[in-house]
Amino acid sequence: MGEKWAGLAARREAAADVLLAVAVLAFAVPAVVFGRSFPALPFLAVPWWAQIAVGGAAAASMLVRRSVAWPVVAATVACALLTGQTMPLMLAAYSMTSRNTVRSWPWVTAVLAGVHALADYTSPYTDKLPVAVTVRAITLVFLPALVGTWVWRYRSMIRELRAGVRAREERAAAQERRRIAGELHDTVTHAVTVMVLNAGLIQDTDELDEIRKLARNIEDKGVRALTELRELLTALRRKDLPPSAESVEGIPRLVEESRATGLRVALHYDVPEETLPRQAGHACYRVVQEGLNNVRKHAPGTDVQVVCEAHGDVLNVSVVNSGKSRAVPVRVPADAGGGYGLPGLRERVTLVGGRLTYGPTAEGGFALTARIPFHPPDHGEP
């Protein structure tokens, strides 16, 4: 669609230039043919064919006025001096400023106005009043030049606005892509990681009951992941949470799932679930989810401490591993996550007004910590 409109605009501009060229010819040629053209310099004897040639050159210069100014200026000045036709001077003044093709346009316009005044003063068909000649030169040459500067500034403003709109659209699209990548990472990676771990445990056990239990876990995680993906696709454009989005009440279940896959996880949980906004609770859930996933990938044999507690109007949530690894029979895909987790998690926490920090601990482990503000209701209000 953009290319179509650009093509139409180019054709309109070409048609306008052709019409201007025809108008210049209509002013210059009949005056020469019917003997009504008089050179601005009376001592010059200009043959009729030279006058027609100059008029044709001024008309032809209209076809290149949008790209370069000097052919238009030179041809119209010659046309005014040799034929006495001043209308092309007005077109030249407007063309050079509306396209900003001349830097020192006031000086060039002053020259055009002087040529116009000379041709007007020496013409036998006008008065010889210097004041009237000056007023006509200023009005008919400087005014089109000023209008051209306004047109150029208006076009520049429109171009800047369009460029700004495109830049904002590109930034919004990039933010949306990052948000979708983060949502998909948080939704899929946890479920797939747990399913892979359970599948690995199935290969290491011969007990039928244990195999059935692990298979049910795989099925449950797969069904839940599909449900979350379907809801995610409908909720992403509204920028709200899907109905199945977990809040802080899902953190104990995350811990139990991690324990079932071989991690040693201790949980300290003290959160007023009934007064917690969904956005803040969901951010806490994602912090714990990402922290446990990272432990499975990078330190599966360590002791893990998960803390989620509220102090006033701030939620403190952290996942810290001891760094003292012990051999455990777990298999985790090396490329699980793809490196999207922590940057996306930081954006998620920042969007709810919180702060996420992560890094190694003094004991050789790793800590993922978030502080998320929320505003509990005042129970003293009616």
From TrEMBL:
One of its GO terms (molecular function) is kinase activity. It holds the Pfam family HisKA_3. It is an enzyme of class 2 (transferase). Residues 284-374 form the Histidine kinase/HSP90-like ATPase domain. InterPro entries: HATPase_C_sf, HATPase_dom, Sensor_HK_TwoCompSys, Sig_transdc_His_kin_sub3_dim/P. The chain crosses the membrane at residues 14-34, 41-63, 69-93, 129-152. Its EC number is 2.7.13.3. Keywords: ATP-binding, Kinase, Membrane, Nucleotide-binding, Phosphoprotein, Transferase, Transmembrane, Transmembrane helix, Two-component regulatory system. Residues 176-240 form the Signal transduction histidine kinase subgroup 3 dimerisation and phosphoacceptor domain. It catalyses: ATP + protein L-histidine = ADP + protein N-phospho-L-histidine. It comes from the Bacteria. This is histidine kinase. The lineage of its organism: Bacteria, Bacillati, Actinomycetota, Actinomycetes, Streptosporangiales.
